[in-house]
Design goal:
With about 425 residues, the chain is mostly beta strands. A 7-stranded mixed beta sheet has the order 26-31-29-28-25-27-30. It has a 5-stranded mixed beta sheet with strand order 6-4-1-3-7. Strands 2, 5, 8, 12 and 15 form a 5-stranded antiparallel beta sheet that branches. The longest helix has 24 residues. It comes from Lederbergia wuyishanensis. This is YbbR domain-containing protein. Pfam families: YbbR.
């Protein structure tokens, strides 16, 4: 028995049996139904979709342009969970289209992938793309600036925009370049604008139906300057009156030291405004007065400089008049050796129209006035002499005749 146990083959057989027993025991422990952990759960089949996976395109980009390939695709992966989870987490695979050997024209191409575990089943959605491979063409186009004029504040208007640079270089497929109808740089401004806009704007390329075209623009943005102004115009001020002054008051003049003001607004509004009117109420004016009157804004005018004017009102007491008749003409300075005969006016009397304030006028009597002929230094003969009035100082008067014709004769010696 000792010899049998010392035999090398016996030892080898026993070792192999022990190894088999150990393997079976370990498998039952870690993989059996009653195990506390289940690593095989990681090996169960699983499906997931990786979205927005970028598409790489291999082609002669210096001379050709490709259109019709989406920027991203969705990738559906199926397989053991650990491989699915790793692919979704790492995203280190590539989806591509290889057009290296394609000729110019339209083609249907399949999306391919690489650098993903071969233990996964991969489905790309969509699987194909209808593409157009064209000759690359570059051409310069002028850029037109545009913006929404409704954002201008009331009374403001925009002048012709300036674009820098004025032209851009557009590169794309020849058939796309031929479709270009508009190259625009649109200002995106918020709020009401009352000052010049200066802003970089992205260049947009459109066809006749205003569809955006897939092209390369250099530079992508341009500097757009849109001068915003508030047009102005000088207009006169017209003063109107309302109301009736007191009975004994006469308004002599109404004037202003600001006969002209500046109005601001859009050109189409200003062209229809020729003057501004202000209305002054004179109902309670009894003496010289200076008022500050606000100007009314016409529709569409956003500013007036100045927006108030001073109005000066000059008054006087209302004048009445009456006529004094048959006032005898008197003389003074007649030489003692001469006789005087009044040829005209007839009867040697005149009428006197007297004007003044009511109170003063009521006091005026015929006896308060003297109509005189100054005959000093006159010799015999016919003369025409100015009539002079002496009378009350608080009234004015006007003679019916301003001159008198007289005849001077020498007295006979007795």
């Amino acid at each position: 028995m000792d010899k049998f146990m010392e035999n090398p083959w016996f030892v080898r057989i026993i070792s192999m049996l022990l190894a088999i027993l150990l393997f079976v025991t370990a498998n039952d422990y870690f993989g059996g139904k009653n195990s506390g952990t289940t690593p095989n759960d990681m090996e169960n089949a699983n499906t997931d979709t990786i979205t927005n996976v970028p598409v790489e395109v291999y082609y002669d980009s210096e001379n050709l342009v490709v259109t019709g390939i989406p920027q991203t695709v969705d990738v559906k992966v199926e397989g053991q969970r650990r491989f699915v989870e790793a692919a979704k987490r790492q995203r280190d695979f590539t989806v591509y289209v290889d057009l290296s050997d394609f000729e110019i024209g339209k083609h249907r191409v399949q999306f391919l992938y690489k650098d993903i575990s071969d233990k996964l089943k991969v489905t790309i959605e969509p699987s194909y793309a209808d593409i157009s491979l064209q000759e690359k063409v570059s051409k310069e186009f002028g850029v037109e600036a545009e913006f929404n004029r409704s954002i201008l504040a009331e009374g403001f208007e925009a002048e012709r925009p300036d674009v820098d640079p004025k032209t851009v270089r557009i590169t794309g497929a020849k058939d796309v370049i031929d479709k270009i109808s508009y190259v625009k740089a649109t200002i995106d401004a918020s709020g009401l604008i009352s000052d010049t806009i200066k802003q970089y704007a992205k260049v947009t390329v459109l066809d006749r139906e205003l569809n955006k075209l897939d092209v390369i623009v250099e530079p992508e943005s341009v500097l757009v300057t849109i001068p915003v102004t508030n047009p102005r115009k000088n207009v006169p001020v017209k003063i109107n009156t309302t109301g009736t002054p007191p009975d004994d008051i006469h308004i002599k003049t109404i004037s202003t030291v600001t006969p002209e003001v500046v109005i601001f607004g859009r050109t189409e509004i200003l062209k229809d405004v020729d003057e501004l009117e202000v209305t002054v109420d004179v109902s309670d004016i009894r003496e010289d007065t200076e008022l500050e009157v606000p100007l009314k804004y016409p529709l569409g005018v956003n500013k007036i400089t100045p927006d108030k004017i001073k109005v000066k009102i000059l008054t006087e007491k209302k004048q009445e008049e009456k006529t004094l008749k048959d006032i005898k003409i008197e003389n003074k300075g007649l030489s003692s050796d001469l006789n005087m005969e009044i040829v005209s006016p007839v009867n040697g009397t005149v009428s006197l129209k007297v004007t003044g304030e009511k109170d003063n006028l009521e006091k005026a009597l015929d006896s308060d006035f003297h109509v005189l002929l100054n005959l000093s230094g006159l010799s015999a003969g016919d003369h025409e002499v100015d009539l002079v009035v002496e009378g009350l100082k608080d009234v004015q008067w006007e003679l019916s005749e301003k001159k008198a014709k007289i005849r001077l004769t020498e007295k006979e010696n007795v």
